[in-house]
Amino acid sequence: MSVATKDPISRSQGEIPSDVPKPIIERLQSLKQRIRRVILLRGLLGVGAGAVAVVLLLMAIDASVMIEATTTRVLLSVAGFALIALAALIFIFRPLSRRLSLTTVARMVEEHHPELQERISSAFELLSSPSDSRSSRGSEQLIAALAAEATLDVRNVDPRREVGTRSMRPYLIVMGSLLAILAVVFVLWPRQSSYLLGRVFVPQRNTGNMQAMSLKVDPEKDIVVAIGTPLTVSVLSEAGPLSDPRVRHIDSTGRETVDRMSPVPGAQVGPTYSFRYESVLEDFTFRVQAGNALTRF
Predict the structure, then answer these.
(1) What digits encode the pLDDT tens for the residues 33-49?
(2) Weakest-pLDDT range from 126-130, 155-159, 174-178, 259-263
(3) pLDDT (tens digit per residue) in 257-266
């Protein structure tokens, strides 16, 4: 005949011991749920703060640096999203994946209340152990008396008071500060901010950078022309004269050619520049660059 036994710690982690008084089990479970809830909320605040910081950083980089290649924009966004995922791993998944037994919860409470003299954890461990082990640790009457005292002690343990939200305050302050900064940016520059935000989340989209928002290129859409006919590319600036405007076009082989644009005399709407292709012989894509402004293809 064989006898299978379980140690107290493994039983308290995996299953609820039937001999432990129900008030002790219920209160320890409430504390455990409260601890995990605070960990989750604190983690969400940390990840949220990290996400806002990453978005602000990517928007600032895009606004200050002329990024020519779409691949570079995609890699920047992917790196930013990877940082957010790493923050979620550090602040949420890792803390919540740690095993938290009811015995550990009882000891955490007793650390803050020395007057309990470890009665709750002791009663829990004794009542969780097999019957033959209890006899070697003390009489059933003494264990029952200890359980009764622990039951009275645990009734005075308030999960809200024991597990406060003070640890969440730094995360909340950082999150609120970053959201305030983001809100100020959107209030001061709503159009530019929305544009940059779109480029962060959809980096592969064919768009110009923020400095090119004031440029109107003609033709503005794909067009079809007969082989050998001329084509004029023009750009209108709504923000004043441009610095060295150029047409950058890429032929079917991937080779890029840069041509300077000339001012259009007598333009009524605003400073206008143009370049004329005398004879179009093949398909090509183009975009206009003026200083740090770079339009879409």
Answers:
(1) 999 999 999 999 999 99
(2) 126-130
(3) 999 999 999 8
- Exposure string for 126-158, b = 16+ CB within 10 A, e = fewer: bbbbeeeebeeeeeeeebeebbebbbebbeebe
In angstroms, how far is CA 28 from the centroid of its own chain?
Answer: 32
Helices (H) and strands (E) in the chain, counts: 11, 8
Is 278 exposed, middle or buried (CB count within 10 Å of its CB: 0-12, 13-18, 19+)? exposed
Residue in the structure block whose two tokens are 């790493």: 86
CA-based radius of gyration for the chain = 34
| The dihedral formed by the CA atoms of 89, 92, 98 and 103, expressed in degrees to the nearest 10 | 170
Write the DSSP assignment of 124-168 as a string of letters: HHHHHS-HHHHHHH--HHHHHHHHHHHHHHHHT--HHHHS-SGGG
Each as own residue / partner, the long-range contacts of residues 153-156 (CB below 8 Å, 24 or more positions apart, any chain) are 153/116, 153/119, 153/120, 154/23, 154/24, 154/27, 154/28, 154/120, 155/23, 155/27
Contact (Cβ atoms closer than 8 angstroms) between residue 57 and residue 190: no
Q: Pairing relation of β-strands 285-290 and 262-263?
A: unpaired
The strand pairing partners of 155, in sequence order, are none
Neighbour tally for 211: CB within 10 Å? 19
3-state secondary structure (DSSP) of residue 293: strand
Of 290, 76, 88, 64, the C-alpha closest to 203 is 76
pLDDT for res 4:
41
